[in-house]
Amino acid sequence: MIGDVLTSSILFEALRKKYPEAELHYLIYPHTKPVVENNPFIDRIITYNPEEDGKPQNFLNFLKLIRKENYEVVIDVYSKIATGIISKASRAPVRISYHKWYTAHFYTKTEKQLHKPQTDAGLAVENRMLLLKALGKDFPAELKPKIYLTEEEKTDAEKQLTNAGIDPENSLFMIGVLGSSKDKTYPPEFMAILLDEIAKITQADFLFNYIPKQKEEVEEIYNLCAPNTKKRIHLDVFGKSLREFLALTAHCNALIGNEGGAINMAKAMDIPSFSIFSPQIKKENWSIYEDGIRNVSVHLNDFSTALHGLSQKEITKNNGRYYELLEPNLIFASLDKFLKITSTKKVGTK
User: Fold this and answer.
1) How far is Cα 37 from Cα 210, in angstroms, rounded to an integer?
2) Banded model confidence at residue 349, pLDDT cuts 50, 70, 90
3) How far apart, in whole angstroms, are the C-alpha atoms of residue 179 and residue 217?
4) Is-contact 90 108, C-beta < 8 A?
5) Do 218 and 318 share a domain, yes or no?
6) DSSP readout, 184-252?
7) Do 99 and 173 have their domain in common?
8) Is 337 in the same domain as 205?
9) Is 47 helix (H, G, I), strand (E, B) or coil?
10) In the structure, what pLDDT confidence band is assigned to residue 122 with cuts at 50, 70 and 90?
11) CATH of the domain at 50
């Protein structure tokens, strides 16, 4: 997923600093490539399309290509059967991943993941950096993911906002109205209530993060909003590509909405974020660089004991019901505090 690829890119910065002459390759899905474009620490991006490359003969050919690279070290951040096969097939003398009993035999070195964060970077970052222990002890415990936009991309986004009649001096929020799936999407009626709250206490304009095929779902939320809120929403201004979305977000005061890849991307551009976690997601895993000021998140566990003692399977099965317990009025206090900090002035783009 996009958030995984972005977060894992921190390994390249750490490796480049220790091995300045090394050639560093990144194997990712094609649709995730935009978040690591222009990354100065990555020498080459190799894409794997599961629909095509996953076919038996194509997969064998792909493994042969990987083997021809003669890698000295392979770091597998997933430790799944498929990635384990690719790692083993590389014949790299050093193959590193997380310790799982069913994939451990693919690697020469495995690390057990941490379950409690040691820094404000969060487990998603710390566990990735943990994989570098196999190469030495002098790597940092954490690094912040970064996105590298060009000046041209930022200028084009600024023109798009100006052409839409959006006042560059006014506060502007990117709203993550939809999650990566229905199970990771705050109920539409609740999201509309949050937007009305933002419109009440700020004079901000709103952009929605969505793609054209999601227009109907987005319009449902729009139609649930109060008339005054609707006036501030610019539905026709959205990123037609992931890079366009990133450039538009770089001009926003903050990104507010469902936790996921978009939140991680905002953090990577030093744009403040306010995220709503799905009940089925463990907040400690993905609350990256949260300080309670510029980066804030909420989870049902912050307000209720309803999930205590339940298995992940039980929570996932009844995720919708538990979402209903995370009512907007529970979130208002944290959201209002966040807005007082982020809506007062524009945030400089990175």
Assistant:
1) 21
2) very low
3) 11
4) no
5) yes
6) GS--HHHHHHHHHHHHHH---EEEE---GGGHHHHHHHHHHS-HHHHHHB-TT---SSHHHHHHHHTTS
7) no
8) yes
9) strand
10) confident
11) 3.40.50.2000
Both structure tokens of 165? 């009649």
Residue 62 lies in a domain: yes
Residue partners of 55: CB distance under 8 A and separation at least 6: none
Are residues 228 and 196 part of one domain?
yes
Q: Which domain range does residue 226 map to? A: 152-342
Nearest to 263 by CA among 161, 130, 124: 124
- How many alpha carbons lie under 13 Å from residue 69 in its C-beta half-sphere? 23
What's the chain's average pLDDT?
94
User: How many separate domains does the chain show?
Assistant: 2
- What are the residues facing 207 on neighbouring strands? 174
Give mean pLDDT, residues 117-137: 91
Is beta strand 94-98 parallel, antiparallel or unpaired with respect to 254-258? unpaired
Please state the rounded mean pLDDT for residues 175-186: 93
Local structure of residue 343 (DSSP, 8 states): S
Q: SS3 for 256?
A: strand
With respect to residue 143, please indicate whether it lies within any of the assigned structural domains: no
CA gap 278, 326 in Å, rounded:
10
What residues are paired with 297 via a beta bridge?
A: 275
Residue 147 pLDDT exceeds 80: yes
Q: Where are the alpha helices (H) located in the chain, listed in sequence order?
A: 2-8, 10-18, 50-53, 56-68, 81-89, 123-130, 151-163, 188-201, 215-224, 227-232, 242-249, 261-268, 283-286, 312-317, 319-325, 328-342
Q: Is residue 140 part of a domain?
A: no
Q: What is the pLDDT of residues 265-276, one digit of tens each?
A: 999 999 999 999
